[in-house]
Design a protein that fits this description.
The complex is a heterodimer.
Chain A (H helix, E strand, L loop, with lengths): L3 H12 L3 E5 L5 E5 L4 H10 L7 E9 L8 E9 L4 E9 L5 E3 L8 H12 L2 E3 L40
Parallel strand pairs in A: 2-5, 6-7
Antiparallel strand pairs in A: 1-2, 3-4, 4-5
Chain B lengths: L13 E3 L2 E3 L2 H10 L4 E5 L2 H10 L22 E5 L7 H10 L5 E5 H6 L20 E3 L6 H17 L8 H9 L4
Parallel strand pairs in B: 3-4, 4-5, 5-6
Antiparallel strand pairs in B: 1-2
Helix pairs in contact in B: 1-5, 2-5
Chain lengths: ~170, ~180
């Protein structure tokens, strides 16, 4: 049985200063790393003799407009079927330099997940074979999940700003 | 032998031995309204309610809709059940364009009628932004009885529709307002 403590120690042994911010929200190991180390880390987790973390559950993004220099975060959720162990890896990126290497070389499922993250946040995945919009209309010219854009449809005339406290 | 079979009432006309004279409108309206073949365009939860309507308890087949066709060429009415995203809107329009006249459209559920609770950047706020709609069935989702009521309203429309309606200028103007030739 893998424990969060054991996995965290092994990761620190291998990556040292490049991993930080270890947390356990709701019992799930969460750590942050740099964009240079994310692919080596995913590889390490997969090839480790004991972890067998070989399933990429999700890649998603999040936008914190108030964190200057670290506005965007790409979140990788990984899972080990054999050990029944889950982990979350976060990579913070600045808005001015929104690039991160693609995980499609390691996991084929990363293809669509990264397209979705690009579609909603505008995060560029270097090396992705086909980084185009996947869920929104192709003609859309903005990235809707960024916090500056409202959720509501802009073309309705019957809902006024006062109803939404604006 | 069953003796309690309900038969549709004949329209008013002049009858004699071996013949029955009535207006063409009425007979065609009668035939159309009792054999509307639906095209279920089911996207989300309202589609499940539609499935329930087609099943044996609420039985849409009683109303002549025994053959739901998924081919627009052979369908009379388009039942849009479920949320239509803006990305799906051109597809829906394409399906509508492929239907042959006379065609009717029912917007089943709140999402098809007006976007429902999904007032968002990605959801089409009502299919009447892309195609003309005849009957709106509100509900989230509407119960099968309400869907049947919507279809009975289409039956009323089909029954009383004039044969020249699709050729009139107002109808053509309606279609051009949706950019449909």
């Amino acid at each position: 049985m893998l424990t969060n403590q054991f996995v965290a120690e092994e990761i620190v042994k291998k990556f040292g200063d490049d991993v930080f911010d270890f947390e356990e929200p709701f019992g799930m190991l969460t750590l942050s790393t740099t964009r240079e180390q994310i692919i080596p880390m995913l590889e390490y987790l997969r090839n480790h003799s004991e972890f067998k973390i070989s399933f990429l559950t999700d890649i998603t993004g999040i936008h914190y407009p108030d964190n200057a220099g670290q506005e965007f975060c790409v979140v990788y959720h990984v899972h080990s079927f054999i050990q029944n162990f889950r982990a979350r890896i976060k990579v913070f990126l600045a808005e001015a330099d929104l690039h991160i290497p693609t995980a499609t070389g390691l996991y084929a499922s990363a293809n669509w997940m990264e397209r979705e993250t690009y579609d909603f946040f505008g995060i560029i995945f270097d090396g992705h074979p086909n980084l185009t919009r996947i869920l929104n209309m192709d003609e859309m010219d903005y990235f809707p999940m960024r916090r500056q854009y409202p959720l509501e449809d802009a073309t309705r005339e019957d809902k006024i700003d006062a109803l939404f406290g604006r | 032998m069953a003796t309690d079979i309900k038969i549709v009432e004949a329209p008013e006309g002049f009858e004699g031995s071996g013949f029955f004279a009535t207006s063409f409108d009425k007979v065609v309206g009668l035939a159309r309204s009792h054999s509307l073949w639906p095209l279920p365009f089911a996207t989300s939860c309202c589609g499940i309610e539609f499935m329930s309507t087609m099943a044996s308890r609420y039985d849409l087949g009683r109303f002549g809709a025994e053959r739901p066709s998924f081919s627009p060429r052979q369908a009379d009415m388009l039942l849009v059940a479920g949320t239509i995203a803006k990305k799906m809107a051109p597809v829906l329009k394409q399906v509508y364009l492929q239907m042959a006249e006379p065609r009717w459209v029912v917007a089943i559920g709140a999402c098809a009628s007006s976007g429902g609770i999904f007032d968002t950047y990605s959801v089409l706020q009502g299919i009447d932004r892309v195609i003309p709609v005849d009957v709106y069935v509100p509900g989230c989702p509407p119960r099968p009885e309400q869907i049947l009521e919507g279809i009975m309203q289409i039956q009323e429309i089909a029954h009383n529709e004039s044969l020249r309606r699709r050729n009139r200028t107002e109808y053509q103007a309606l279609l051009t307002s949706y950019n449909i030739q």
